Fold:
Amino acid sequence: MNLNQESIQKSLAGEFFGHKLYYFSETGSTNDEAFSLGIAGAPEGTVVIADSQNKGKGRMQRVWHSPAGANIYTSIILIPQIQLSKASQIPILAGVAVAETLNKYCPEKVHLKWPNDVLIGGKKVCGILAQIKISKEAIDFVVLGIGINVNLSREQFPQDIKEIATSLLIETGCKISRLELIISLYENLAKCYKQLQQKGFGQIKEKWLRLTPMIGQTVQVMFKDEMIEGKAAGLDEDGSLILLTDGNKEVKVSAGDATILKR
Ligand code: BTN
Structure:
């Protein structure tokens, strides 16, 4: 079924997230749209959804493949009451919420890779990009962007990501209703967000640790031109990955791309 403003609006009306909704059949990037809305004073919970993006953005200045009619591209404005140093808790909680959502379609097969890739069978099915507006060392708002590969067939993936990305269609063999998926995504996001605001990061962190295959594994993290290798030992309160490097030295990594090394 095609997405449209009316059907999404009806489904999200009265919900914690999406009470204010902006739908585009095509836009540059839902994150850019949401950021502009945030600057203009849009309230927390404002949601942007697009059927396609012509400038979809990934982490580390990458492009996010965003064709029409198949996937979910959405961004939400959050105004979390947390310190700036804890801002990375937000994309971590989004990973947990997405994994819980996708688990319904692919039970026991969804995993998380730090910092916030959602994987099925080791292949990426969802990417999360958080962008923060800061003033005076405090968070003004966070734009949380989520892209989920839903009904894309293997042939529709660009050559360079064919082997490392997947979709729900590929994994389940079934076409999935994007509207149902959006509703359940925003329900789970609201649940995790309330948990963070009311009870702190503890339960989200526990869920994340249960959903990741990384702990105890040797991982390599690349950031810009630097590479660090160590055994993944845990997740810090600020969302950093805790690594034990040679000589059992504890190092916290706050950004980068992680690879689990097969030994
Ligand atoms: C990643 O590199 O893993 C993050 C990808 C994030 C993609 C989503 S799609 C919706 C939102 N708008 C964007 O331009 N990017 C995010």
